[in-house]
Design goal:
The strands form three sheets. The protein has a five-stranded mixed sheet, sandwiched between helices. It has a five-stranded mixed sheet with strand order 10-9-8-11-12, with helices on both faces. The longest helix is centred in the last third of the chain and has 25 residues. It contains nine helices and twelve strands. It folds into two domains: about 120 residues, ATPase, nucleotide binding domain (Nucleotidyltransferase, domain 5); about 160 residues, Nucleotidyltransferase, domain 5. It is of the alpha/beta class and about 325 residues long. It is globular and about 55 Å long. The C terminus is likely disordered. α3 packs across α9, α6 packs across α7 and α7 packs across α8. About 35% of the residues lie in helices and about 20% in strands. It holds the Pfam family ROK.
């Protein structure tokens, strides 16, 4: 049994053929022409599909999942990635369905990239076997997805669990989405670096002044770098505690580039949880790093697509289909 997968982001468009145990049989990718016209972008997607279809395993294709940067609209099959300006309500599902090598009758399943990561972690990663989990991507932005009652919960439009846009500071900075004090504006890698720089931190010569460099400085005792991670941890703790109060989580999984900071992030985050998770049923929820890395989007897209087929990934619910 072979599942197809696409993972579309602002940097790369990746594709894979995945077997029913989550192993990548074939993988390919192209750079995303993120600032180019819509049809040029679609041409890159078609090129990835062409490469996948050239492999023998394509003949056994049973389903095809698409993970995309959001917002997405899974019911309409459209995408409007913030970091891909030419695609606004772009009919990606229909365009992929119309590719000449897409099998007749196969309808691709669309999910947001953070929901795909959640599906992957639930199938094969840190959330495997967990009934109620929040999986987060903390990177350039902050995204997330939910597993409720043992199944992926993408919501009506496919954006449920988007924890990055929970307001945690009523007087906080205005987020790119337009709301004040969002988690993303306080805890993303971009926000961590900006806060450290505003406090007077500077990256070492030749180093990029990003969240990874801030983490390295924090490990070396720089108080401004530590403060930036403390601020991020507080924002994450407030949002996680609020989510736990709403749906009674059993586990929180955090992946993405910022999570690579390890204890620099997780130690203050777990400490700060005590300030916000004060009700009995919200306390002591485990917070763990994601187990899957670069290919989580592809694995999750495959899992979401396969869910409607009764295959081994069927405990992961596919997004709603029109």
């Amino acid at each position: 049994m072979v599942y197809g997968a696409l993972d579309i982001g602002g940097t790369k468009i990746a594709g894979a053929l995945v077997d029913d145990e989550g192993r990548l049989l074939v993988r390919t990718e192209r750079a995303t022409p993120a600032r180019r016209p819509a049809e040029e972008l679609m041409g890159a997607v078609s090129g990835v599909l062409d490469e996948l279809a050239s492999h023998l395993a394509w003949e056994a294709l049973s389903c095809l999942g698409i993970a995309s940067a959001g917002p997405v609209d899974t019911a309409a099959g459209t995408v409007s990635p913030v970091n891909i300006p030419a695609w606004r309500r772009f009919p990606l599902v229909e365009r992929v369905r119309a590719h000449p090598r897409t099998p007749v009758g196969l309808r691709p399943v669309l999910v947001g990239d953070a929901v795909a990561m959640t599906a992957a972690e639930h199938w094969l990663g840190a959330a495997r076997g967990v009934d109620n989990a929040l999986c987060m991507v903390v990177s350039t932005g902050v995204g997330g997805g939910l597993v409720l009652n043992g199944r992926l919960h993408p919501g009506r439009s496919g954006n449920a669990g988007h924890i990055g846009h929970i307001t945690v500071d009523l007087d906080g900075p205005v987020c790119a989405c337009g709301a004040p004090g969002c988690v993303e504006g306080l805890a993303s890698g971009t926000a961590i670096a900006a806060h450290a720089l505003a406090a007077g931190w500077t990256a070492p010569p030749g180093a990029t002044p990003d969240a990874a460099a801030v983490a390295a400085a924090a490990r070396n005792g720089d108080v401004r770098a530590r403060a930036a991670y403390e601020r991020a941890a507080q924002a994450l703790a407030a949002a996680i505690a609020a989510t736990t109060a709403l749906v009674e989580l059993d586990l929180v999984v955090i992946g993405g580039g910022v999570a690579q900071a390890g204890d620099t992030l997780f130690t203050p985050l777990r400490r700060r949880m005590a300030d916000y998770a004060v009700l009995d049923f919200t306390r002591d929820v485990p917070i763990v790093p994601a187990r899957l890395a670069l290919d989580a989007g592809l694995i999750g897209a495959a899992a979401a697509a396969s869910a409607g087929l009764g295959h081994p990934a069927a405990h992961v619910a596919a997004a709603p289909r029109p």
